[in-house]
Amino acid sequence: MLVPFLAGAARAQGAASNLTFEGGESFTVPFELVDNRIFVGVWIEGKGPFRFLLDTGGYGGISVETAKRIGAKLGSEAEARGAGEGVVKAWETVFKEMRIGNGRTGLVLKDLEFHAFDFSDTRHVFGSETFDGFIGLPVFSQAVVRVDYGKRLLTFTKPSSFSYAGKVKPVEFELERFLPIVRGEVDGVPSRLGLDTGDRSAFTLKGPFIEEHRLRERYAPKFEAVTGWGIGGPIRSQVVRLPVLKFAGFEFRETLTRLSLQRSGAFTANDTAGNVGAAVLKRFAVTFDYPRRRLYFERESQDDRPDPYDRAGLWLSGSADGHAFEVFDVVAHGPADEAGLKVGDRVVAVDGKDVESLKLIATRDGLKDARRKSVRLRVQTGTATHEVVLKLRDLV
What we know:
Elements: E1 5-6, E2 19-22, E3 26-30, E4 32-34, E5 37-44, E6 47-54, E7 60-63, H1 64-70, E8 77-81, E9 88-100, E10 106-117, H2 123-126, E11 133-135, H3 137-140, E12 144-148, E13 153-157, E14 171-172, E15 174-176, E16 179-186, E17 189-195, E18 203-205, H4 207-212, H5 215-219, E19 224-230, E20 233-247, E21 250-260, E22 274-276, H6 278-281, E23 284-289, E24 294-299, E25 314-318, E26 325-330, H7 335-338, E27 346-350, E28 353-354, H8 360-366, E29 374-381, E30 384-391
Parallel strand pairs: 6-11, 7-10, 17-22, 18-21
Antiparallel strand pairs: 1-8, 2-10, 3-13, 4-5, 5-6, 5-9, 7-11, 8-9, 9-10, 12-13, 12-23, 14-24, 15-16, 16-17, 16-20, 18-22, 19-20, 20-21, 23-24, 25-26, 26-27, 27-28, 27-29, 29-30
């Protein structure tokens, strides 16, 4: 998760009525799906487009670098927490106008209060790919938003003009802080579940729920690893496959599930059992109707195969200099460990291709491919360079 829980952010339960529709009461724009996350073009103070993550898990933030490019003034310092264990600095800023949409049609937010962050550690998530910020509650609370994952389309509709014309029944939800919460079941246990479009994973269970129901003993996870990155640093988890997950009238089997090992941050809260992430949500076209507290899940993908997991046993980050992938974490007794890779090693080529010509996320996806039996890496350890072959295998 790349979204903060801001100390002192009194806007968590709602947003001021500062959104207007221009050129019509409903419009549709395309979006990019990158690592299961929704990215949409945003214009700020007439400049852009900037790449923003559309996130049900947060309010709004922008990189310090982008804020400076726009000419925004950074005000009082604040603290932010997210999925990581650390606390990071943020600075208050205000935008006179933010716009989503093309040409004369779109939605406009006025006098929007944001926070600016140092995004430099997003290299651990996206490598050399960059993005400029994220937006959540100010949009979702004032517009009905339909996310069509299959067609990569976002539709924004003025709430007073919205009438659902589909065939599925609405799902009621609660809103806590920024996140929609639905009722469901975790392997037969009635549970409250957050729906987080900014979380790339399938499902994450929080520490208090895990301990209350003794899930580590029940599922006997075989390993732990860095399984993601959020504001505040890496996310460590044990990884299992949950026999049954239910919500919104749907049932999911063998869902790839993170049992959080975090000692602080968002995954130590006892407000919900855990979060459903985009690896599950992307099977649907989801309509978020915050004003009426309703959701509509239209099943698009009938692919019920279990989500794949990394078969190399490591977490690769983008290096600070942008010239390599950096080994940030190695799973004990996994393929990378058995091949001798160490934290801090630099991967400069993958199967003969220089890393500078590769995308980090695509490379990670390739390490999940069950058809792939091995991968050859050129690795720098200190001043020495050597070839390493990882024999890939299923870890969960």
